[in-house]
Specification:
Rossmann fold; globular; 8 helices; alpha/beta; about 25% strand; two-stranded antiparallel ribbon
Length: about 220
């Protein structure tokens, strides 16, 4: 399947996110506002609910959140009893915000700056039972400079970070299921999906958000 690249956007640039999280750090310090949850709370809740229902996933499984932002997904998993939680983001400001929030909530989470386009750094970072992405692949796809090459580097990094029998969970609002399956073909196989709300338009049924489960080939 041929994949048509998305139009470039400032959402795909590091400068945009650094400025955004610098603003959110100020808001958090001033009034305790943790900032926005990428997409919405419902998307995050669906992912957490799915994880908790899996019989082959236990609270000791290691989880890494790619493009963790303010870290709210990991905070929720920590509240559910998960003990090995890691968040990475290429924005130092995002990592600073996430660390502040986790510390104030007394939840132990490891946060680090990691550029997923640096495949060697990802390879040296370690392997995890669960690799999660909600919106990061989307943001990389919106980079105005060589998005295809950046997407391919991201996919290599995910492969480097995921254990052989691990689970990769990705939620996207820019790519539909067929496009995601095609993009990850060769390195990953689809093993399931997380149901999301659908809508009907022009006689066709669609979804604003796609959440898929992949296993490494």
């Amino acid at each position: 399947m041929s994949i048509e690249e998305l139009s470039g956007s400032e959402l795909g640039t590091k400068d945009f996110w650094e400025k955004s999280y610098e603003r959110e750090i100020r808001n958090y310090k001033d009034n305790g506002d943790v900032g926005e949850i990428w997409f919405d709370q419902d998307s995050q809740d669906r992912v957490i609910s799915w994880i908790l229902k899996q019989e082959d996933i236990d609270l000791n499984h290691s989880v890494i959140d790619l493009g963790c932002g303010n870290g709210m997904l990991l905070l929720e998993l920590g509240a559910e009893g998960f003990t090995s939680l890691t968040g990475v983001d290429y924005s130092p400001k995002a990592v600073e915000l996430a660390n502040n929030i986790a510390k104030d909530n007394k939840v132990k989470i490891k946060y680090s700056v990691l550029d997923l386009l640096d495949t060697e750094s990802a390879k040296e970072f370690g392997e995890f039972d669960i690799v999660h992405d909600k919106g990061t692949y989307d943001a990389i796809s919106l980079n105005p400079d060589s998005p295809k090459e950046k997407r391919e580097a991201y996919i290599q990094s995910v492969s480097n970070l995921l254990k052989k029998d691990g689970t990769f969970i990705i939620t996207s609002c820019n790519w539909v299921e067929d496009e995601l399956v095609s993009a990850f073909e060769g390195r990953f196989r689809k093993s399931g999906h997380i149901p999301t709300p659908t809508f009907k338009f022009g006689g066709k049924v669609g979804s604003a958000v796609t959440s898929l489960i992949f296993k490494k080939i």
